[in-house]
Write a sequence for this structure.
């Protein structure tokens, strides 16, 4: 179809149930509503009497494979299991070089609520088999089931959207998550109470002492991480209103804090499990060796909290300057 559009001459419109072909000319700017499915806007081109051919495919979304440039490095021809084409596919050919084109798509499936991706068909990907590519295209807005994209080149365009969880199921899954985390927190509190009640009776030697120190810190780390998870989820589900920059700035600090401590204490959980494993290895291999409680505690806390702290701080230092640690995404904190 791209090769065919290069050979079309004249000015006309041809339409069937599956395709809309339009051939026009324009001076400097161009606006076209393609049967309310796609709106094309080209402005300030500076080209007099430029010829433009648009071909809108209403059903091609059911035919073209949903694979994108993120799958290219995997060397696979499999389709993307997450995303789906959610708009008509429009082919645009102009006999001049266009640097700025705006397209507004009407969604085919309005139940998909995930963020759209503005894409074009790149024939060079997957060993010239082709795939959807987002280079040179940017998302502008998603208002009233109409997605607006801006691109710096012309070819075959459409939008990809996640076929993710429906809104009604998302509420149920959120409820299951909160109930599960709540049960986990209650069990961890009970564990810590029992450990405190029987502490003197079960820590009569250094090995038992260190083993139960590891158990307590493992449970405590998971408990605090769960609390941070609940706080972070509450902040994310109660975002600032779009356009209220002040409200967003107020929420960034608590969200960043909750995310940092959740990261830190989940890491601490695994490192305290490592301490328990090393203690078991030490007592199994070095049966007659003796290590004082103070040395064991120093090694345990260095591994259990020192290593997670280094990893968490390095993560923040590497991602925060580029706004990658906490991001604003359509009014949400992520």
């Amino acid at each position: 179809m791209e090769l065919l559009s290069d050979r079309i001459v004249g000015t006309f419109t041809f339409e069937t149930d599956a395709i809309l072909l339009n051939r026009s000319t324009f001076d400097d700017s161009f606006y076209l509503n393609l049967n309310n499915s796609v709106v094309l806007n080209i402005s300030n081109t500076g080209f007099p009497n430029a010829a433009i051919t648009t071909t809108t495919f209403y059903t091609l979304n059911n035919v073209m494979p949903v694979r994108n440039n993120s799958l290219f490095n995997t060397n696979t021809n499999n389709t993307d299991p997450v995303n789906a084409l959610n708009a008509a596919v429009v082919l645009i050919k102009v006999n001049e070089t266009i640097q700025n084109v705006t397209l507004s798509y009407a969604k085919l499936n309005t139940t998909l609520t995930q963020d759209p991706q503005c894409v074009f068909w790149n024939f060079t990907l997957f060993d010239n088999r082709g795939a959807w590519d987002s280079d040179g295209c940017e998302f502008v807005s998603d208002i009233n089931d109409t997605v607006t994209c801006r691109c710096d080149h012309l070819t075959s365009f459409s939008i990809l959207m996640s076929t993710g969880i429906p809104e009604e199921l998302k509420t149920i899954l959120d409820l299951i998550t909160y109930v599960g985390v709540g049960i986990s927190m209650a069990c961890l509190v009970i564990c810590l109470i029992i450990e405190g009640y029987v502490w003197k009776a079960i820590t009569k030697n250094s090995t038992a002492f260190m083993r139960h120190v590891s158990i307590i810190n493992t449970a405590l780390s998971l408990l605090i991480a769960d609390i941070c998870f609940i706080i972070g989820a509450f902040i994310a589900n109660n975002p600032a209103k779009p356009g209220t920059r002040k409200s967003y700035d107020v929420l960034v600090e608590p969200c960043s804090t909750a995310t940092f401590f959740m990261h830190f204490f989940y890491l601490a959980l695994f490192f305290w499990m490592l301490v328990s494993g090393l203690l078991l290895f030490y007592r199994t291999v070095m049966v007659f060796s003796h290590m004082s409680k103070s040395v064991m505690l120093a090694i345990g806390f260095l591994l259990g909290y020192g290593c997670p702290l280094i990893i968490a701080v390095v993560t923040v230092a590497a991602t925060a300057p580029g706004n990658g640690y906490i991001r604003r995404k359509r009014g949400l904190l992520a």
